[in-house]
Amino acid sequence: MNPEVQRDIDADRCTLTVFMTAGDAGAGAAYWQERENGPRAAYALMADARDRWDAKTVTFGDYAVRYESLAGRPDVALAFVRSPDGGGGGFPSNNSESLMELYQGALPEIHSVDGQNTYTKAGLAAMLLDVMETFQPDTIHTLDYSDKNIGADHSDHRAAAYLAFDAHRKYRTPHSIGAYMAYGVDTLPANVFYTVDDRKMDVFMAYAVHDSKVCQTTGACRNGAYDIRSFRQYRNAGEQGGGQNVMPLATVSASSGGNVTKAVDGLTSGGPVAPGNEWTTSGGKAGSWIYGRFANVQTIDRVVLYDRPNPTDQVTSGKLTFSDGSAVTVGALPNTGEGKVVTFPARTVWSLKFTVTGVSAGTRNTGLAEMQTFATSVAPQATVTVSSQNVATNQQAAKAVDGYTAGQGFPTNREWATAGGKAGSWLKLSWLKPQSIAKVVLYDRSNGSDQITGGKLTFSDGSSVNVPPLPNYGTPLTVSFSKRTVTSMTFTVTTVSAATRNVGLAEIQVEAPR
User: Fold this and answer.
1) Which of 136, 255, 366, 417 could join 395 via S-S bond, C-beta 3.0 to 4.6 A?
2) Whole-prediction pTM value?
3) Among 315, 322, 424, which Cα is nearest to 370's?
4) Which domains does the chain have, with CATH numbers?
């Protein structure tokens, strides 16, 4: 994932790198302790600072780990988890324990090589989530979590990536995550320019001095796998997190190509890394389109488009058209696998269409690796708790913030229903970061019996707003109020219809002021 990390450091972005394993290779303490000096030296070089670090022990989740910040650049930090370097099956010196065996459930726990921690799979995922919630990153780089073929890479790389991805899915602050290939880049075309590669090799050599198991001179490294990898950086997958991507909720169609659903499958990689994960037209160029229609209206303000990241096919311009008649012009999509983020004033729509208006000269089959569309509601970023929920009928609390406003009528219920709750039932949204909000949209359960006839919104700042009756057949009720900045909001049902048996909500949306 370098030169990406180098760019972050050059831009003075706060950068924390978490090393999940000690990289001990079963060779004992002297080897892994010296090897940790490698990233220290490499990161100091990337930051143009002296190789001096301020170290302390910091607790994330249930585990105390070593945390070090660069003395001349405290915004550059390293954390060492020190789980055993397992090589898949582990080494005798570490009781044959490995991170992958832990992740796959073959072992209930593993032990750090420094003897300080006993790790479980759930505990490590919670630890990484705590790291994210503590440092609030807007960008997460990790290794390749998209390809379950473990043999294509080191098992520790895979396991660490899977754990990071699991944590990302629970991290509610808006952010992006990218999955970068490691050993698998060997067979792919070079895509790092020479001057950047030269810097990348210098950084590797600063590390290599402290690792006796890798090449020790530039000449030796230039004639082996490390030279091949220095010319390559491939992002194999990625997605936006924290916000709510509603594109998978849409029914999609396209001008040509039978694989249009691959554009909304959550995998942004595409060819040449994963050509099966993309929408490809049949000879389409300018004029090709992809269309998505939602089962219920969505309020959106951002679309992310991922081109097919191959050397020939590239979208150089396009246009987003919405069901309300509005349109947004789109510039060239990056040809490297990165997403093109298109923002616009929020609009409430039933559908959207992306039309390709220009392509590169070499394009033969235009298409997209992925198309993401984000709703404006901050409710999905919150932790949802409720007075009760009906688990037996699959009508849990999380369904109130899943993007479906219609409630029943889908293959599975998409609404929150209490277990016999009436007046006094409540739903609470809690955010890790303060949210400035000015509007709440409530959708009642769209059936003939259960209806909320009165309610109250109570905010963490002590203020409250009364809520009138909700329409009983899926029509939204919008409650607007003066802007307030809060960390939680509770909706309490104060009155219900006489026929109500299990009060609840199909959806609750919370909007920032516009």
Assistant:
1) 417
2) 0.72
3) 315
4) 4-239 (3.40.50), 243-375 (2.60.120.260), 379-511 (2.60.120.260)
